Task: inverse folding
């Protein structure tokens, strides 16, 4: 029996009918076979892994009769969002020979993107290539001119799958998409490790308090935090700026480790606001619900934030570091609240 060949597609792209039999990877569609680590996935236990890429690699190694039985009438492999784990999941299903040959970098790149932490230079490079592929200064920008929305996502995925050997095997040929950012991250990590960052970790609670005197990128913060619950304290002349976040490892369904359960941060925000006292204008303690991929608690302006972005405007709080850390630790010690 020959392995079934699936056509890559993107949910919502022109010409794609979601009613046609399909396999959904990384994200999920409402029906049909699914290979994903997202909450609520329908992935069979035998394929479970920490990343959707790892799940799809396990599926790609399954015997062909087993694959055929799982896929049924599926003609397409689809995703409903654009990111590195999504690309590499589709690659593992459509071009497993390429994914197997570059398996280590596939896993490293998917982890860099989904867990927002840096492991290897090559993994970082591949993740940034995926994310910046259609940027105006991209060496291949002409392939995406005039595209937007789902159509742009579909065309980028198609380009990445067609050029996967180049992306995975020679990311230096696309260095304008990642080299400057790598240098900045490397410098930031070096400064932090040399003393610009002070870290204390409560292993029992899986809770890290990281203190700096300047902004720190989310990628550097997660790389150095040493825990999945992270409070960043940025000291300033008039006080401190606070931003707490649960890392995505606590949202995805992972297979090889057990991150701490999430608590609802909104009661913590209410407690801290009482301690803070009256705030000027819209500035106050705010928190996301625990169902968000990266829920935050922060002191500043109550404004939305897109997944994977760190854009909220923080302000200096009257509270000291120990007070804020203690409020969070008390919530963690009380156990899950959802």
Result:
């Amino acid at each position: 029996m020959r392995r079934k060949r699936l056509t890559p597609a993107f949910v919502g792209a022109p010409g794609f009918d979601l009613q046609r039999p399909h396999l959904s990877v990384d994200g999920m569609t409402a029906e049909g076979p699914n290979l994903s680590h997202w909450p609520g996935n329908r992935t069979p236990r035998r394929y479970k892994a920490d990343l959707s890429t790892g799940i799809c690699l396990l599926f790609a190694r399954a015997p062909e009769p087993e694959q055929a039985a799982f896929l049924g009438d599926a003609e397409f492999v689809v995703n409903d969002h654009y990111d590195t784990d999504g690309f590499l999941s589709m690659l593992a299903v459509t071009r497993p020979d390429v994914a197997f040959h570059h398996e280590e970098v596939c896993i490293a790149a998917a982890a860099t993107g989904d867990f927002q932490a840096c492991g290897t230079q090559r993994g970082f490079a591949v993740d940034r290539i995926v994310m910046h592929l259609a940027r105006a200064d991209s060496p291949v920008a002409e392939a995406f001119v005039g595209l937007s929305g789902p159509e742009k996502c579909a065309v980028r995925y198609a380009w990445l799958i067609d050029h996967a050997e180049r992306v995975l095997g020679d990311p230096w040929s696309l260095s304008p998409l990642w080299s400057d950012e790598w240098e900045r991250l490397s410098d930031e990590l070096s400064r932090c490790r040399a003393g610009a960052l002070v870290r204390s970790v409560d292993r029992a609670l899986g809770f890290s308090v990281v203190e700096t005197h300047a902004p720190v990128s989310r990628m550097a913060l997660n790389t150095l935090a040493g825990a999945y619950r992270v409070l960043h304290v940025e000291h300033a002349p008039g006080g401190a700026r606070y931003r707490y976040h649960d890392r995505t490892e606590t949202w995805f369904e992972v297979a090889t480790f057990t991150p701490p359960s999430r608590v609802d941060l909104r009661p913590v925000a209410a407690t801290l606001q009482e301690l803070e006292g009256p705030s000027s204008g819209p500035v106050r303690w705010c928190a996301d619900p625990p169902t968000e991929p990266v829920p935050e608690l922060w002191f500043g302006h109550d404004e939305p934030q897109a997944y994977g972005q760190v854009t909220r405007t923080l302000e200096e709080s009257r509270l000291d570091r120990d007070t804020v850390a203690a409020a969070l630790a008390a919530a963690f010690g009380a156990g899950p609240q959802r």
